[in-house]
Amino acid sequence: MSDEILDEAYERLHRTGPEYQGWLSNHGPMAVEALARHGHQRQVHRWLDSYLGRLDELPRGLHPIDDWRAALGDAKRAGDWLAYFDRQLRERPWRDVLGTWWPRLLPGIAAGATHGVIRVGHAVRALDSDDANRQRRTELGQALGYWAARWQPIPGADRLLDRTSAGESGGPSTGELDVDAALAGLPRIDDQTGGVRDRLDRLPGVPRWEPALAAMRPARTPAEAERGLATLVHRAGLDYLRFGHVAPVMLVHAVTAPTAVLRTLPALDQALWAPSLAAAWAATAAMTAVYAPADGLAPPIVAAATPAEVFARAARHGDEHVVKLADAVLDAHAATGDDRLLTAAGYAGQLI
What we know:
By secondary structure, this protein is mostly helical. The chain has 2 domains: 1-150, no CATH class; 155-167 and 179-351, no CATH class. 59% of the residues lie in helices and 1% in strands. The protein is built from 18 helices and 2 strands. It has helices at residues 4-13, 28-37, 41-51, 68-71, 78-91, 94-105, 115-128, 134-149, 157-165, 179-184, 196-202, 209-213, 222-243, 253-264, 273-291, 307-317, 320-336, 342-351; strands spanning 19-20, 24-25. Strand 1 (19-20) and strand 2 form a beta hairpin. Helix 7 (115-128) crosses helix 14. The longest helix has 22 residues, at 222-243.
């Protein structure tokens, strides 16, 4: 993507913080990248004009990051993390920085309701087409810094990630279900009220949660990991049609989080692909368990449209979640040819 409009948009956004009004995520960098990617550059600045007013200023740092482990997940250190990654990306190739930090950040994939990893996925996609671009390297640094500042594990996922990272396959603790069956077997929290952090905190109290999380078959090769991620995005997109009416904004992230991981794979060492699938599965599973109802509705009937029409409608709608979901399901549609996916973006537009 060589269009200068995206870089101009990044320049405007990089004076703002990764969150606003407490801890709402700044969706601007993700939305403008999707708009530009799909040929809607002329709408980017107009969209930003109406969005920037809600954002906070870039946070100031307290003191430099020295013990990174102690600083992970400390939102008060957001300014320090942004400065840290800005320095890292000035001094080292961006793929080296990403390769170092991806396995450190992956266990905290719930960061910012998964917006940390989602923003990284958009930044990596932008860099893939122009990896010497200053604004895009800055965007990757701000995305990584946000993820580090809001780093948050998913209850029960640590053992899943440890096992996958160690390359274990087989054994009594290894799941054998495919993605469809694993998603279908997820339990739900009883009290689906409150914010995402409160809901995630309730997962340990669900007896079936950890066995269900461990039930999906792990990837044994990089190719299996890539296929598993593609299937996870596909299935989560279809599940949005069944469950989206209950939490139309938050269930978008069950689709966009694994999409971000899938987009990042080509920039990573293949040894990281299987743990990446495990973390993405945990993210989608958690968002489903804490927001989706036990029983879904029949998928809605939405008028047929081409992929270009689907995204154009999302761009006209303007909501950042509708734009990002359209972007994600178009990727999944391109990979699978499943036209049902195209209805998810339109459905989100009706609900949000």
